[in-house]
Design a protein that fits this description.
alpha+beta; three-stranded antiparallel β-sheet; two-stranded antiparallel ribbon; 6 helices; 40% helix; elongated
Length: 173
């Protein structure tokens, strides 16, 4: 009696169950990381255009393919950004700015002037992780690094440290 066909069907079913459980876990962890990035966001200069705060996105991957993404803007139902990213030397007066204040700001670094959430999503769509299952957290604003390194703020570094507490083996759903 040859059980090869039955074994192959069993392995295929087990693989499907594992893949679905991993997909659900990755989505749950992506949401958790995105919410954490939103909650930990801190800029001593407060939000101006809204691009950096709304521009963090988390992508979940299976077999190198993006299967899910979420952004801080989406998870927290944040309002639209007030304008494109401020370019170096460009002055803007916003009434109100993203934080609800009336103020003027001059760009400090070079940016593409675009939308951070869209830039983050584009990165995630083009990213190709080598692991079978992966999660990637990215911010599409050039100001993310500036806020953290020059102003001592938190755009995604707190989320990075928090991610180390997540266990890759926790696949209970």
């Amino acid at each position: 009696m040859d059980n090869t066909a039955a074994l192959e069907r069993g392995f295929a079913k087990a693989k499907k169950i594992i893949d679905e459980r991993m997909r659900l876990l990755l989505i749950r962890r992506a949401n958790e990381l995105c919410l954490r990035a939103h909650d930990l966001y801190a800029s001593p200069k407060k939000a101006f255009t809204g691009n950096t705060w709304t521009g963090t996105a988390v992508g979940a991957y299976s077999n190198g393919q993006l299967i899910y993404y979420i952004s801080t803007k989406m998870i927290a139902s944040m309002p639209e950004v007030r304008r494109g990213k401020l370019k170096k030397g460009e002055a803007a007066y916003l009434s109100p700015d993203y934080a609800g204040n009336v103020r003027r700001f001059v760009g400090k670094i070079e940016t593409d002037g675009g939308n951070s959430e869209q830039d983050a999503l584009e990165f995630l769509q083009n990213h190709n992780p080598s692991a079978k299952y992966a999660i990637c957290v990215v911010n599409g604003s050039e100001y993310a690094n500036y806020i953290e390194n020059v102003y001592g703020g938190d755009v995604i570094k707190g989320t990075y440290h928090y991610a180390h507490n997540l266990r890759a083996t926790d696949i209970s759903i």
